[in-house]
Amino acid sequence: MERYRRASQILLRYVSCETRSLSKRPCGSSIAGSQSRIQEQFIREYNTKLRNVLPHSMPRVCTRTVQVQDEDRLSAANTDWMRKYKGSSQLLLLPKTTEEVSKILFYCNSRRLAVVPQGGNTGLVGGSVPVFDEVLINMASMDKIISLDKVNGILTCEAGCILENLNNYLTSEGFIMPLDLGAKGSCQIGGNVSTNAGGLRFIRYGSLHGNILGLEVVLANGTVLDMLGTLRKDNTGYDLKHLFIGSEGSLGIVTKVSILTPAKLLSTNLAFLACNDYLSCQKLLFEAKRELGEVLSAFEFMDSHAIDLVLGHLEGLRNPLPTSSYKFYVLIETTGSDESYDKAKLEAFLLHSMECALVSDGVIAQDISQASTFWRIREGISEASVKLGAVYKYDLSLPVEKLYDIVEEMSQRLGDVAKVVGYGHLGDGNLHLNILTAEYSDDILAKIEPFVYEWTSMHRGSISAEHGLGLMKADKIHYSKSSETVQLMASIKKLLDPNCILNPYKVLPQSVL
Amino acid sequence: MERYRRASQILLRYVSCETRSLSKRPCGSSIAGSQSRIQEQFIREYNTKLRNVLPHSMPRVCTRTVQVQDEDRLSAANTDWMRKYKGSSQLLLLPKTTEEVSKILFYCNSRRLAVVPQGGNTGLVGGSVPVFDEVLINMASMDKIISLDKVNGILTCEAGCILENLNNYLTSEGFIMPLDLGAKGSCQIGGNVSTNAGGLRFIRYGSLHGNILGLEVVLANGTVLDMLGTLRKDNTGYDLKHLFIGSEGSLGIVTKVSILTPAKLLSTNLAFLACNDYLSCQKLLFEAKRELGEVLSAFEFMDSHAIDLVLGHLEGLRNPLPTSSYKFYVLIETTGSDESYDKAKLEAFLLHSMECALVSDGVIAQDISQASTFWRIREGISEASVKLGAVYKYDLSLPVEKLYDIVEEMSQRLGDVAKVVGYGHLGDGNLHLNILTAEYSDDILAKIEPFVYEWTSMHRGSISAEHGLGLMKADKIHYSKSSETVQLMASIKKLLDPNCILNPYKVLPQSVL
Question: Does residue A425 share a domain with residue A348?
Fold first, then answer.
């Protein structure tokens, strides 16, 4: 009964949608009442304490921090981007400094109050919203750029900075962020770090494990870990920052980030291509890695269903190619330092690929506006997919040669009840599998899961390439990780957060905690 | 007295050179006798047990594994590359399988016998040799290549594979290793991973934290952690492999590695340049990052003392430039996919740099033989530095603009008693500071330390950019890491290796364990 005892320590209130397996826990109204009382006390105590400890120059921090009055904002913070997960938190805090985060966590930990760290709340696995009525700590108010080392391209900023804002700032200084993703207008760098976001530039600049140079993190007990180095190389002891990259806020709250940013290269070229079959897409990737080599900066693919979805549901977009009878589309981007040479290189590559019949048709963007349209098609798929009704989203890493098989098998398996869409970062072996239906249904879910996880596991893939596990897949971790490894993860969780207050029910199965 | 109690559990024998601070421990001959008896028993028990547990098809494993008979080999394994650290292990084991490593560690852990994992023993901080008479586990016999995914360039191999052998194998398949270093002919990939080796290709391909895709690791208690994924993206739970990258064998023994290897690009060009002052070197780096951009693959610098050292002490080398009155030399390598374009690009860059007076003189290698000679000069510095007598080696990360100041300050500080040499990976902000004297002396050491560490700490640098802490700098960790961070490292060490049998006295100060 260890797991139930621990769960009750976190003072569950009541059960939200999409948390069926957790609904069986023994959490009655008496506990809810207790949590309510504690919450009132918390707000009172928190206000009093903050007033005492914060400098007098920040008199509005307390009123700004506690947002329970604003029901709309609270409701939005309780609901995930897909409207699939909804929590019931009554308390949304927006700390403005690391010290405040530390004090909030110290307070919550000493009283065993569960918290959910939240960035832009753009995640797709229910990792950034409460399951019950956990305290929400949103980092949006910590949005300052701290420094930019213009010789080495090292940016240091607070965790709440929005990715697109950082990229815009860097672009004006001759650098770019090493990651880019569809949610860039809302997602925060702290959330990107905590979920080890991948995205569109991964093939060129690699993982955040390679690009993050330093972090400041607040642990569950309020301890501030200053690992905010700005050095490319530092082999002094265990590199603990990696524990917090991708741990989805379950080991600590990232408050500051330093990141290596590549020089902004002057020449970007983008091609929108059609392939008749998946094998051609694979061969094209192999050739692109060799022939485009050092200038290749994106290799994205979409099937015809994905394209139809975007063109049918988003305004002002059309297929850049005259006919639309192709089965697959590929976006290839190159980024280099020589406009005319780079463009000629991409043109020669395409010509050669068409001669070899790898590519059936294609067009190179002639200006920035056209390039934006091409990207809008690729980046709009996620947005378009939720317009049709319900969408089951899977984010798989698979060996490239097997990657599209699951789309075809799933399509056969589901027949007419669903439209199965496949797209993603082919260059990284990352498939986004979207299954669109009129509404969420247990019958359909039973046809999809556990099949999709078993299939992925059988092919030694990952059931979460870049989205993380969150609430959706915490119990599925064993499809991708050995039991010894999960056990060690649990030991580390218990070491860093012995009261399990940080983002409970996410990432790891409750059975190991 | 916690630290002494724990130390005695590891059964110290006697004190070796260079371990002064540890010599004060209460370890008399009675303990030595006890360890000797236990060791005899260990050999006997180990042989018996291995005979029982290993398949009959491997009858020679036992005799091959236990090498106490071969005194020369044992002596070599006890001594570090610089002949600065010497242990007294009587037992050198060469396991051939992960299962054997597991059984050895299970055995040692249950009897609290300390072990030292060893790769090519090319480290520079005393991390790979015993301090006293720890059991040596050398990975040289686990040297098989397991697989190469030729579409994605993912190599999986055993930990004992020698770096150069891996690179030669990959080259024949159209790939290269993402790291390269002077010790490549002896160092093992498991050691590279365990020390988070940096080296010459870091500026292009980044850190091992970005390139290692999976590891198999044996923990102190013999548990095998299978994290040997081969996927570029995998966000399923905490990415624990990073704990073992750079932890110098103190958290587990790496037995297998999978690593992303870049495509071998066909065109490599190398320039050997002279600059009159350090500011020009910095400006040249800034320009190279922008103008050479995506083809830049190395930016190394050496001062005139480094060049003089190599030319004076290694056979068959001469300065590629006609006059030798320059203060600094820079090696710039580009790697790309187009021979004539890449060469023209480097030539244009050099011409422009000479016009701007950043470069005083320079030459581009005309063939592979000339390129090898240029590289031999850079890579020979470490070898040449030990030919003069004693050498104090420091490996610092510093902000580029401050990086050479420490060389000049140290030179003034030491005067005639030492020659101070500065070189390294300028593109990564990594200085190798070598101080050459006739012999090791406490007086000279007192002039160097703690000054060098205090200076580095004051400038927010790292006291170990890529060499690790080992025995030499375990007690110095606080110059680069906060006390909270070191405390968490200690907690993780105690979690993974509660008996502290793995590489004791290294990486972390004894005071926190």
Answer: yes
